Amino acid sequence: MSYQVLARKWRPRTFHELVGQEHVQRALVNALDQGRLHHAYLFTGTRGVGKTTLARILAKCLNCTTAGQGDEGVTSTPCGTCPSCQAIDQGRFVDLIEVDAASRTKVEDTRELLDNVQYAPTQGRYKVYLIDEVHMLSTSSFNALLKTLEEPPPHVKFLLATTDPQKLPPTVLSRCLQFTLKHMPPERIVGHLSQVLEAESVPFEESALWLLGKAAEGSMRDAMSLTDQAIAFGQGEVRHGDVAAMLGTLDHRHVLALLEALAEVDAARVLAEVEALAEQGPDFAGVLDDLTGVLHRLAIAQMVPDALDNGHGDRDSLLALASRFTAEDIQLYYQIGTQGRGDMAHAPDLRTALEMTLLRMLAFRPQGVPRPAKTPLPMRGDAGTPPGDGSQGQGTRSAPAAGGVPATPPPAPETPVAQAEPPAAEAVTPPEAAPAAPAREPGPSQPVPDAAPPPPRAEPSPPPEPAPRVQAPAAPRPPAEAAPESTPAADAPVAEAPGEAILDHDAWLARFDDLGLSGLTRNLAAHCVVEADDGRDLTLRLDPSQAAMQAEVHVERIREALAAAGFDRRLTLADGPLPEGIETPRQRADRLAAERHARAVEALRADPQVQKLQQAFGARLVESTVKPADAPARH
């Protein structure tokens, strides 16, 4: 016996064997059991989802001779063994007329078809007309079909199937009972393929079935055909590597490796992964498309984990990977990826465009540009060491290799600063400093005008700064006493804050705007209240509505901002309901803004000029547009 392909061998023969179209199955089974039969059915959907299969099952239900128990002898469970059922399965049932509308589009073909409608069925209970790809009929053919389609003889049923219902005239659609068949999700395809391969005793890897399910694009027939091809390609087995090579698609694991490199902010690993991809000769535009697609799924995994699909069988991996990104990073990476996809048409080559897009993702992270490798740092030190004269920069280029240059610059700026104070005061008081500057430049006539501008420039700006500085060291006789007097005065307030001050909620509200937080980090901190502070550990209670936005990077930014303000603590963000009667910084800001707005509105209402406008012209004050003049600037 010749080999029968899987798509035909495993075609469903009853409604209960149908996979993935429960909504259509339920409607047809109930209609058959209750005897509520329509004269015309229209099945729509993409290729390979079961339109023709449904029509043939329905034809068997209408003509089964042994299992029928209804008033008209129809049933929702055909036996499959009676002559009618076997003839329909084998394609030789006389009263099932299958027509390919793509090859019979002329009006003469339709009229010839309808000439036999009036005759009673020969073998079965109903004469069933199955017209496949009905949208290919011409306008004249549709017009010839309309009257018969609307009022057919009682022994005739029309079953129409199409992949493009938009091309059908509304007059035809209104005369049919329409059922739209859904795409097959990859999960359903993988499950069905597993059952088929187990029944066929074919070894397989589940990851290979996910590749087939994704490549089928919602068509079960395409999935079965690809499985046939994979079995032949793998010499009787379905393996991941063989299926990936057969399909010529990108291995999904490479995309996840790129995302892991992005999560680690490792630019070197990103480029290494792209180089490994280049050895396989992939479509780099397709790589970027897959990458942005996974970023979309990561955003869903962060916001609504239960809604994450398992299209590649990687749901658990994506849930773990999503916790390594912040929400703002994923949104930024997705936007950069979509823009980079459009820029590929103007790039020198697609690999360059992909690498630049990935590096742009790292460069524009809100956390800042990642540090480059350590090898180029000495070269940057060579270029960055000369703060002033170019001659000094050239002289120090040989020194960085020895590592001694970084130690020399610090004392250099310290000594001039300490020595610059007395000369600044001396340069203001005696006029001797004026001739000293022009003496360096030659020229007999220009020293006098050049010497005049410097004193006015030095007199207005230095006096306020050097004046107190000159008074402090003016008594250099007791240096031991001067040093302790100046240090406590400057360091006392700073030393008290980090060492002894406790951050209570009032201090948190008072100092919140001075922390310098911005973006999502500021928004997260603005929904927190101080729960406990013992000088070492600080606990902030976070509003439960913002729990989804919590990330380690935001906690670290808040801790660094508090440390800069004098509260160096180990920071913990706890979830849970906020205490009653305590405002968060956001609630306090909203309340103050509402109070300012209310005062501004009352002031406008009491303004005599506004009252005159209201009386003279019937003007109305739009309160939502009022902006208080004393509104503070937002950070």
UniProtKB/TrEMBL annotation:
Gene Ontology cellular-component terms listed: DNA polymerase III complex
Region (Disordered): 367-493
Single GO MF descriptor: metal ion binding
InterPro entries per the UniProt record, alphabetical: AAA+_ATPase, DNA_pol3_clamp-load_cplx_C, DNA_pol_III_gamma-3, DNA_pol_III_sug/sutau_N, DNA_pol_III_tau_dom-5, DNA_Rep/Repair_Clamp_Loader, HLD_clamp_pol_III_gamma_tau, P-loop_NTPase
PANTHER family to which the protein is assigned, alphabetical: PROTEIN STICHEL-LIKE 2, REPLICATION FACTOR C / DNA POLYMERASE III GAMMA-TAU SUBUNIT
Function: DNA polymerase III is a complex, multichain enzyme responsible for most of the replicative synthesis in bacteria. This DNA polymerase also exhibits 3' to 5' exonuclease activity.
Family named by the database record: Belongs to the DnaX/STICHEL family.
Protein name: DNA polymerase III subunit gamma/tau
Species whose genome carries this gene: Halomonas beimenensis
Gene: dnaX
